[in-house]
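Quick one: structure for this chain?
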Amino acid sequence: MYPPSEGQPRLALRSFGGASAGSGGPRRRPAVLLTMGDPAGIGPEVVLRAAAAPELRERFTLRIVGDPDAIGYWSDRLGIGIDVEIVAAGPGGVAVEPGSPTTVGSIASLAAIERAGRLCLEGEADAMATAPVSKVEIVRAGREFVGHTEFLAALTGAPDVLMMFVSGDRRVALATTHVAIKRLVGVLSRRLIVGKLLILRDGLSRLFGIAEPRIAVTGLNPHAGEGGEFGMEEREIIGPAIEEARGLGVRARGPYPADAIYRGLGEPGGGGPGSEFDAVLAMFHDQATIAAKLWGGDTVNLTVGLPIVRTSVSHGTAFDRAGGTGIDARSMVAAVRLAGRIAARRGESS
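Got it. Here's what it folds into:
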C-alpha cells in the first residue's frame, strides 16, 4: 500500500488548499481536475500517466480527485512518482486488487465525480477530465447512476446536454445516448432533435470558436429510409426537425445515411460527404460510437451543454487489463488537453 517501499518513487500527496481558480492576478494556467475512475480498473493508471505528461504539466495546473490510498497504490505499482495535488473524495482507505471491483471502490469513484463537479461549479477549478467507472458496480453499490453525462447534468442543473466524441477536427454528437433499440422510435421526436441541434450549434461556437458551424444529421434507418422504403422516420420526424432548426439559424443538412457521412469528416475539401461539415449529429449510440472508436486512441468524450467543462476518455474500465502491460493513456492525455484548451478559451472570452 502507501507509502512506497524503499527505492521506489514517491507520489507527493498534497491536500487541496481550495485556492479559487477564478482569483485575480497574473494570467494563470487553467486548473484541470482528473477523476481517478474505478480504482480496480485502468482509470488510475491512465490518470497518473496523464498527470505525469510534461506537455500537460507545462500548460495546466493538474489535480487528481479520488481516494489517496488507491492513487498511492497505483503510483507505487507503476513507479510513477510525480508531485501532484490530491483532492480526497469518497469513504477513504480503499484497498485495491486490480481487476476486482469492490463496493467501496465504486462508491469512491462516484464520489470523485461529484467532488470534481462541485469544485468546477464553485470556481475552484476550470475543467474536469474523467477516467472510466463501472455503471454496473455503482448501481450494485446502491447508487443511482446511468452515466457521467446524466449524473453531471443533474448535479449542475443543466436542462439538457449532449454527448460528443472528438478526435482532432472530427466530431460526432448523439441525439440519444443509453436507449434500448426497441425503445428508440418512441424516444425520437422532432422536438428532441431540434433541441440537440441547438445545443450542438451553440457548443461548437462557444467551445471550439466555430462561428457558423455546419452540421450533418444522420437518418435512423438503413440508407436514411430509402425514400420511405425502409421506414418513415426520416420523412416524418428527422427531416422536419432539420427544417425547423434551419429556421432557427442552425446550418444543418440531412438526413444522410449513417454508414457514409463520416467519410471526409474533419478534412475540409478532402472529399467525401463529411468534408463539408464541422460535426455530425447521430440518432443513436452505436451510430456515433462505432465511428468514434475507429478514429483512434486519442478520441475524447465531451459533454456539451453543462455550465462546466467536462471531458472524458472514450474507453471503459478494462478490469481484465488492469495491472497488466501496454495500457494506452492517449485518450486521457487528449481529454485533459481538450478540457484545458476549452477552459482557456472560456477564460479569454470572459
